[in-house]
Specification:
single chain, alpha+beta, GMP Synthetase, Chain A, domain 3, SH3 type barrels, three-stranded mixed sheet
């Protein structure tokens, strides 16, 4: 095995151990582990954790997870260098990492990048329609309906329709004003 190969195996083992620790902590604090990753090696290692819950995560949720996970990582001491721990929400354009994410967000706008070209295309923007077997059925803005193998997706994120969000916000504000109006 080459040094690079050994380093990759060690990084994968560290990543798996971190996901186990974070998964237990997420269960304890009542949040969903969206994704955990280890970026960089050596002097610039960063451990990133993305958590979520219905209604969104709070600063306190992130702080509690950071304190808990940081303590466990320090006690177990299996990361062989200094590291930075980041805990945050996945954000509005959250990443999609596993089958359940595509099922949960069926009907949502997304952008996907595949490892290999599908009909000459690797980048897709449009709407997740559904998951069938091991494929995401995706309505691409350019090429129409496409079947994308889950294993072939290199990166995927939800996409926010800003105009739709403004329209919904205006409707909520209008409803709130109508409901809160008083007459004398």
């Amino acid at each position: 095995m080459t040094f690079g190969g050994r380093a990759q195996v060690e990084a994968a083992a560290i990543g798996e151990r971190i996901r186990e620790i974070v998964g237990r902590a997420a269960d304890e604090y009542g949040v969903e582990l969206v994704h955990a990753e280890v970026a960089g090696t050596g002097r610039q290692t960063t451990v990133r954790i993305f958590i979520d819950k219905p209604g969104g995560v709070t600063h306190a949720d992130c702080s509690n997870m950071s304190r808990h996970v940081g303590t466990v990582l320090d006690v177990e001491d299996f990361i062989n260098s200094a590291y930075t721990l980041e805990v945050s929400s996945p954000g509005l354009e959250r990443g999609l990492y596993q089958r359940g994410d595509y099922e949960r967000f069926a009907g949502s706008l997304a952008k996907l990048k595949t490892r290999d070209a599908i009909n000459g295309q690797r980048n897709f923007r449009g709407r997740i329609l559904r998951v069938e077997g091991e494929e995401v059925i995706f309505e691409d803005k350019v090429s129409g309906q496409v079947r994308i193998p889950l294993a072939g997706i290199a990166k995927a994120n939800l996409e926010i329709d800003v105009e739709e969000e403004f329209r919904l916000a205006a409707e909520r504000e209008k409803a709130a004003n109508k409901g809160g109006a008083t007459t004398e």
